[in-house]
Every structure is written in C-alpha cells, then in structure tokens.
Amino acid sequence: MSAPSREEGSKEEEKDEEANRLLEEAGAVSSSEEDVAYEAGEKILVADFDFDTVDDATVPPFSWKKLWLFTGPGFLMSIAFLDPGNLEGDLQSGAIAGYSLLWLLMWATVMGLLIQLLSARVGVATGRHLAELCRDEYPHWARLVLWFMAELALIGADIQEVIGSAIAIQILSRGFLPLWVGVLITASDCFFFLFLENYGVRKLEAAFAVLISIMGLSFAWMFADARPNRQELLMGILVPRLGSKTIRQAVGVVGCVIMPHNVFLHSALVQSRKVDPNKKGRVQEALNYYSIESSAALSVSFMINLFVTTVFAKGFYGTKQAKDIGLVNAGQYLEEKYGGGVFPILYIWGIGLLAAGQSSTITGTYAGQFIMGGFLNLRLKKWMRALITRSFAIVPTIIVAIVFNRSEASLDILNEWLNVLQSMQIPFALIPLLTLVSKEQLMGTFRVGPVLERVAWTVAGLIIVINGYLLLDFFISEVNGVLLGLLACSCTTAYIAFIVYLVSQSGILPSAWVNRLPKGFSSTGN
C-alpha cells in the first residue's frame, strides 16, 4: 500500500472512531434524560468472591458475603408493615379480638411477601421500577390517573406516619410539645436521614436498621413485661378463628398489609445493586438473595406486630376500654394498666412509636421521589424532589394537626378516613404490577408461570375484595343524605370503570370478554 493510501486509511479510521464516540455521548445524553432510581455511581457492586469467571446464564453458588451485600432493600420495604397505621391496627385487633386474629396476621404477612417479591422481580428483571414501566405501558390519560392515585395513597399514609411520630414526641415530652410542633420536627428529621444517602446507600440502610432494632427492642420489652399467656398465643397463631364481632378488625389486619406506595418502592430499591438485566444467571441470583432477605425482613416485622397485638390482648381484651383505645391514648392506657417500673412502659411505647413513625416517614418520602420521577419522568435533583414530596404531605399534615387536635375522637375519625383513602388505591398498584410481571415481552424468561400467576391474581383479588368490604361498610355508616349519596355513587361508578379498564389490559380476561367492552377499554399504548 502506498503512503497516501495509508494516510487516507488512517484518516478514515479516525473519522469512524470520532463518529462512534459521538454516538456513545448521544446515547449517554439520551439515557440521562430518563429518570432513574439510582445513578450508576450510586449502585453497590456485588463482586464474585469465590471465583473469577462464571457463565452469564449460570446462577453462581450461594455466598453469605453476597447475601450481606444484597441485604437492605427488603428491610426498607418492611418498614411499611410497621408504620403507625399498622401499629394502631395491631393494638385495636388485640384489644377487641384478643389472640384470635394472630393466624390472620401471619397469613396476611405471607400474602404481603408474595406481592413484594413480585415487585422486586419486576425491578430486577427489567432494570426499571414500576412507575417507569407504567409510564410506558398505559396511555397518557391512564398513567396520569395512576400517578394521581399513587400520590393520594402516599399522602394518606404520610399523614398517618407523621401524626404517629408527632404523638410519640408529645408522649416523650410529657405533653409539653403540641402535635403541630411534632409534625415540624418529624419533617426536619426526615431531611437529615435523607442527607445520609449522600454518603452512600449502605449508610442510609444502616440508619434504618438502627430504627428497626429500636422498634424491636421496645416492643419486645413491652411483650416481656406483659407476660402473655403462651398457650393462648400459640392457639391464636395456629388455629384459625373468626367471629361476627371481629370481622372489622380482621379486615383491618389484611388491609394494613398492602401499602400501595410500598409496591412501587420495592421495585426501585432493588436497583441499588448492580445487576445486568441481560445476564440471566445474575438476575436469578439477585432474585434468590432478595427473596431470602425480604422473607427475613418480613419475619422481623411479623414478630414486632405480634408483640404489639399480644400486649394489648393481654391487657385490654374483654375490658370496657377495649373499644376506646387508639394511637392517641394507647400510651396512657398502658401506663394505667402496667404501671411505671424502672423504665415506665409509657416511654417504651413512645420510643417504639417514634422509631416506627420516623422510619416510615422517610421511606414514604423515598417512595414519593420514585413515583413522581417515574410517572412524570422528571429530572430533578434529589433534594428538590424530596422537598416537593415532603411538601405534599407536610402542609396537609400541619393543617390536620391543628384542626383535629381538639379531641382523641376526631383523630380516630381522621384515621378511619385515611385508611379508606389508602384502601381505595390498592387496585391501582396491584393490577399494574400483576399485568407487567406476567408479560413475556417485558420479563422474558422471568415472567411468572401460569400457576404463580393464578395464585398472585387470587391473592390480589382477595385483598381487593376485603378492602372493598371495608369501603362499603365505611360508606354505609358515614355517607348520609341524597346529595352525598349521589356523589358517592358517581365516584364509585368511575372508580369501578377504571379498575375494569386496568383488568382488561392485563391479559387475564378471555379475549371474548375484552372484545365486548367499549372501544376505549381495549386500547393500549401511549
């Protein structure tokens, strides 16, 4: 080859390299325009400790070191099972139904575990979280409705969590600090904990581990002080019992398990570890480890819920005060029943409640960032998203704290309305999750099989029906007057129509049924 030809060839190679570099930069810019749960630099690298190379399609052998590195997201997810709303459900269940609903608490936790494992499965297998996937799966109007419903559920949960923390602060200050001051303290503490994320995901997970440990130790101390009847405790767990007078509490136990924002949250949290969705062996490995740590996390949450339920069952079941106990006055009743001691049970309850409220408030803020970023594809700095998400909850919470702080009864009524608000949103998290996890085009080989799919839809249907019963019971007792009745009927019609639309897009219904639906119900896409 002549010298000019070599020079021309060299120039062509340089042009090709420059073109490839520009294409890579363009691809990087394009991908950066998409909102992601975690940036590449924030993810934890899970290295292979025992061997250097492994086939991408082969699942590496079990490693305790790897399990430790994967441990974290499940425990953050489990905090939603321990928020103040759940604790109130526990204490009311124990006071009114005694030990008889402990079996239901156990199986409700198992159902919750199944739903959360499916959420993790979607996140790991696709490399994207549920809110992002909903943005691509549904048309513009439907995803806006889903986003609005998710935000409503999050605000409702956040109000309960912040109020729970504020009640704990009021208890620990012996009533010196009013409820609204506790709300402000809780809001500021939340930013402090989120600040820890700047030092790495593991630091934030460690802070949550401390809060869960505080809850566990506080409620275990109460459990030891109460000395519940062991035989009745075992009977309550192993023997299913349900009486006509405890149906409402039973519905509450199941309803508290599934938190809509938690379904979105877990699919994002699992992306804090570097897992290549294109490597099947690594994806399956991650799913195995996440299954183990999520099961362990929810076992801990079950024990904590069990402690709270049994303490109130031992102290108040069959008493006149049973129906009057709520989150606001629980500490007072505990003090009257169990007395002071070396460390008064009132303060033990306050410390555990504060840890529950604070931890669940932070995870709520975390979930709000993923929900807003995923549905709306907002590219905002984390502190800005946290500020917006916090404002959505804190502003109405301060109003609630001032308006409803007149009596214990008014806060109990508020809590009932907030439980109803969250129950209404459950289908709008579960149906999209089950739709996506069953899609072969999206999940590939990791789509759920036909048996697991039927089990998951059965569990989801059971949860939706149970919460539907709670809604019906609530509206029959609370909605009075023709105007309110008409408004409730109109809203119910629209609500059911949207659920039918989501189910029609899921592929679970026979095609002949879907074809009979109105035109708009069978259309998909953006």
UniProtKB/TrEMBL annotation:
PANTHER family in the record, alphabetically? METAL TRANSPORTER NRAMP2, SOLUTE CARRIER PROTEIN FAMILY 11 MEMBER
Q: Where in the cell is it found?
A: Membrane
This one is known as Metal transporter Nramp2
Similarity field: Belongs to the NRAMP (TC 2.A.55) family.
Gene Ontology molecular function: any one: cadmium ion transmembrane transporter activity
For the region Disordered, what residue ranges are annotated? Answer: 1-35
Q: Which GO terms describe its cellular component?
A: membrane; trans-Golgi network
Q: What is its main location?
A: membrane
HAMAP family xref list? NRAMP
Highest taxon, organism lineage: Eukaryota
